[in-house]
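Morning, I've got a small favour to ask if you have a moment. I'm working through a protein record and want to make sense of it properly. The fold is given in discrete form, as structure tokens running alongside the sequence. Can you walk me through what the tokens say about the fold? Thanks so much in advance, here it is:
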Amino acid sequence: MKRISFAFGAIFLIALFATDAESCDVPIEVAREISIVFVGEDAGRSSAGSATLGKYRITNYSVKPFEFAAYRGMPPLRAYPMDALVEYRDPSGKWVFDLVVLDHPMPANKIVRVKPGRSYEFVASGSGGPRELYRLKLRQPDGCWHYSQPFKFSQRQAKPKQ
């Protein structure tokens, strides 16, 4: 009898955690309350390898502050690369990672807090390639992902300054 109740307890906990993880699929009271828009390419700053720094604006229409990890430095701040991922839409319609981070980036040293009703601009790395559609995927410290509106990088590859 103890085994049966233990098994049901374990199943209940697994279901509870699975439901909690799914709640991040519709973050902060519906995704429309957070808007992430591609503003352009930041050609004036260098990025690792052949990556292009895209500039984004996040606007918080929710009643809660929106937070994400970044690095201190010259504005606009650079989002932590493990929490700000650019994806492209492949021919089958699936979203696929644009750049794969092979190294272990330095940990973020700042949490950016966007207050309700405010906007904030930041940069994140992407390939800047000729694919049709891209989107930015931005993770909050609680693990919830938020997605930008689809966008296109310019046809010319932004060259970083050396």
User: Anything to note?
Assistant: The mean pLDDT is 77. Strands lie at 34-41, 52-60, 66-71, 78-79, 84-89, 95-97, 110-114, 119-126, 134-139, 145-147. The domain at 30-147 is CATH 2.60.40 (Immunoglobulin-like).
